[in-house]
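Sample log: Calpain-5 (New calpain 3) (NCL-3).
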Amino acid sequence: MLDGFAQHPEQYVGLTTKPGYLVLKNSSASNAKAQRSPGAQKIAPAKIDWSGAKNEKWQFDAITGPGSFTYKTKPKINKRQGSISEGINRVKKNPQLYEGVHFQTEMKNWPVDQQSYDLILRSGSGYRFLAGQSPNFTFIQAKYFALTPYDEIRMTPDDYTDSMSYKGHKCGKPLHPGRGQGLCDVPHIQLIGDVHPEDIAQGHVGDCWLLCAMSALSEFHGAVQKLLQRTPYFKSLPANKPQTYTVTLYDLESWHPVDIEVDERLCTLPDSSGILGCFPCLHGELWPCYVEKAVAIHCGGWDQIEGGQPTHAWRLLTGCRYQYTFTNSGQGFECFGTFNPNTNEWDSMSNSPHGTKGVWPMKWPEVGGGGELGLKCQQDEMFQKMCAWDAASYMMALGTRSGSNSSSVNGIIDGHAYTLITCLNNVAGSGHDLVKLRNPWGEGECTSSMWTDDGCGWEQFPEVKEVCDPVKANDGVFWLSSDEMFKYFPTIYLCAMNMSEFVQ
């Protein structure tokens, strides 16, 4: 740790009274520090705002099927005894409260005292009743048409959507958001709003590496807008007419920006049971869906983005070569990247993460103190470097131990990548070092920490709570101590670009 101070004293004020810790000079403010997006500081759990809904845009459709349905998160279902007709009327009078009413078709003709039905509450669950030839069950769905219905528009398809496949099977019939197909049918639908890291919720594709990188990028004001700046009038989209969106990415063979044009349709699972990629968020913002779709196309298809690393995603999104991976082999963190020290050249790259070669030992980034090849950093020094990178508006992510993402330790998923949103050293003088993380699933948090949403640490240290301002919501955002972070996450990813440069 003292080596960093001796070699780069201009970056530090001096030593703290905490053994081995350095105080970063201007770590809380810098003329070059990138501005955070308006939605970066979330102050309340997300929810759908129906206040702008227009009565004439509601429609109530009867769908029949065997009674099967899918969902993203467990739906809230209110089971009722009594008149099914009254249940239908309840939905029609309060469509902003209910997805619809589900009942056994023949039961509607039974005596009222023998009838029952299920009211499906609007909870952002992604509830989707599956139509079928069997008419045993009926679902009266309250549909909101924010835009012109999908069957009333004529669009020119892009070159990709209709031919895309997933795991060897052709994707199902694509869906149009906001046009009455059960996908983002909300009054406040928009391509880009305030931009929240919570706009991202992973779908069925194993691309947490990409989504956690997108979540990190969305922290910075103007970064997402830059990806879509070649889309005409993007701030006022979507509109009633069919849309085409242009997403600017980087070709990693030439390191030049390229424009990927996609139409408004989003791919579905091969059996058409639901959306394949990430879900539109409760705020109604669509940008994550189209950025993900463009990356899939750019990399060669959905299968090509199954598995990868956040550093590869940041190359595609920003064109920055200076990507670092830090791993702890048990003797300290070591620095790796794609600069070959034997040839003094960067390795050639492909757009697909599957075509990426291995990594080489690299010199440590100058910000944070630097370090030569082979330098091993212990946890205290590593955390101080991370605080310096955070202060420099670099993006970071963390990787858990290898394994199946169906396994977890205290809520932390194996084989998974998380966005690192904030590093805080000695919060409010309490002696506690904390990090704020986000799961790209949009849910699922650490379950065993004094810094969980309702953990005891916030009440024991009110000064820490005032600084961190934790929000109690199952949104995938949570806090950990630095010790807990190092316990659960043996790998740290860094994009060494000041994001104020990217958004210029």
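Observation: The radius of gyration is 25 Å.
Observation: The chain has a mean pLDDT of 91.
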